[in-house]
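Hi R.,

Here's the chain you asked about this morning:
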Amino acid sequence: MMRRQSKDRTRGPAARCAVVVAAAACLLWTCAGSEAGGREPVRLVDHFDPASVAGTAGDAGSPPRTEWVFGAPELAAGTGGWKALAGVAGLRVAGGALVGRSEAPVPILGLEWSPAPEQRDDSIHSIEVRLRASGGGRVAAGLSNAEQIFLPPLMAPGNPFAFPLTSPIVPGDDAQLYSLRPVTPMRAAAVRRLLLKPVDAPGVEFAIESVRLVFEREHLASVPAGLSWQGLGGLFRETLVARSPEELRFDVTLPRDPVFDLAVGTLAPGAVTFEVRVSTGGGAGAGDLRSLRRTVTTSHRWDDVRLDLAGLAGKPARISLRIDAAEPGAIGLWGSPVVRSRVAPDRRNDRPQGVIVVLIDTLRSDHLAPWGYQRETAPLLSRLASEGVVAEDAIAQAAWTKVSVPSILTSLYPTSHTVKEIPDLLPASAITMAEVFREAGYATFGFSAIPFTGKMTNLHQGYEQFQETRLDVSTGGTVEDKAARGFVDRLLPWLERHRDLPFFAVLHVEDPHSPYFAPPPFARRWADAAAPERYREMQQKVQPVIANPLMRQFIMPTRDNLVEVGVDPEQYVRYEHDAYDALIEATDAEIARVIERLETLGLADRVVLAFTSDHGTEFLDHDQHFHGHSVYGELNRVPMFFWGPSFVPAGVRIPATVQNLDFMPTVLELAGLPVPEAAQGQSLLPWFGAGGQESVAAANGWRRKPAITEKPYVAAREPGGYASYSIISGGWKLIHNVEPPPDVLEFELYDHAADPINVTNLADEHPDKVKAL
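And the predicted structure, written out as tokens:
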């Protein structure tokens, strides 16, 4: 069973923060009156002890293995043939193994597979490959649902998305078993074939003895009851896993105004009954008893349930969770089981009851009216910004999502949090914003439009619930578009469910990210009906001449690429700007739904909404497209504002340069929570009453710091690329491009009120200034 990832809170900065946060939680929710217990939530995942499991789980039997065994006389059911797709010579079965020789850096094998009916709703837990190889460093795999495989992007060295499941290998004469784990959920029904890269270098002899698909249900059936991080329908939760007829027992003291919130779900077909019993009679059946039963007949879906425990405040109680099913050993999941205190009516306005972080991916500040854009692309966001505090010049610490979002959510520079490449994970010792709120007693919910901001980067830390895939909640299936609508559809009922509880939510959406095709009716806001097709024709014309394989895959041409094929660069960018602005407006409409629901629930004056973006993007501003490749203003200048009618002053604008590092400390201080000691940003609260005057903000504790953007060289993303850094301080920006030699230094006057995107090389024009720097 995959255990819930958490910190060792007995040592280091994480432990110190936990102690401080626990003290703050006492002030906010726990110590509102000792006569009936505190307000600290009772999370059963934190109280689990294997000794608390009663009953013996039935035996569901071993499901048939889905495995290609190359020495077996016949293939297992569901598995099909295999073939060399590219870069492999001499592929054949010999000596009980599939043997061959790699002739390219990216050799590719294709294995056909058809899921059985009972597997279609299951998720793939891991891929196990037993092989031996004479050389190379890694084995990798990918899962595909495409009817036809387009090989050029897969064969391009450095394409990080082609084979996302990887493991180091040990070359030699002995076969080794390697387990490749998907970082994002993959339903079996969405897989047609397995793509296998047995080695990562040419000239290597390999022999594959077997390849096995291990399913989630199969995996969980093999391990005892306990803690897990489980996803159903793309929604992950802190989870207690048990099998029928096991019962999990917890002896706890109930908090003030208690209510028991949880979700139940199963991976088993047929009916599974979940029973909750809360007894104050010491577990002997006497005393006050509250109970509920919920029978689930649809697998792979969470059902939310709530048990009211009014009148039991402060009492010792036994909580029992029992699963019954006709199928022996049927797996039951208890999702995010927490006893919380309702928010006391007399304590609803001294601190925000709820905090919502809105993180819009790939959003440039210069495409929003509050930052000077001529078009009104986001009327709701413009209104909220005018009613709150706006950072006029906020700088992101990285120019792509994988690196930037960890900085936003931990207040650490990329050099400190160490996330640089796609496989990198945030260290468990780093403290996320969600963890601070969780420790303080808040319900925590996160939404990730891009896998980089979820478990793939260890950014699920601190969330009780986490939505990690685009989901059409009406059908339970994934959708092809990247609209925020599906996430907002999930957020709104969650807000309603937590209207009387302290809550924290992070809504990460990516509508403005490429591809730039807006949905109706927004698509015609600034362009005619034929514009999308004309833009698509231009893309098809220029794609073949794009040299970088990743940029070719995403259709991100340089100016020279467009000129080479006779496409007008200015017209091309006009189409993109129109669609980009329309996508921003579509996002704005979804955020408006959130504000409307807060108003309907009576929460609008009890919340703080904090808004920013992880980075911008380039539309040939420096003759390129996309993001992550430089540190110029179009990539690192992002919008930032804070709104909350009861907690944030209206009409305040911060003229100084600030950083996304400052976002987390500001949010935590607005909520009355302490900032982790390791945080490298600073709170912007000293500006809230400064009237835009830096001298007043400085007197309140704010200090000017240089803003830094880091872009390390990432071989997996950009063959032939280089590292780049920008430092902004005192009206100047230094841009340092480190590789290839000779190093390039650019200095620019940094007047963001005039023209923040116009970069002027000042090395010759202002030699005295360059020497001074």
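The CA atoms of residues 263 and 303 lie 5 Å apart.

Let me know if you need anything else.
M.
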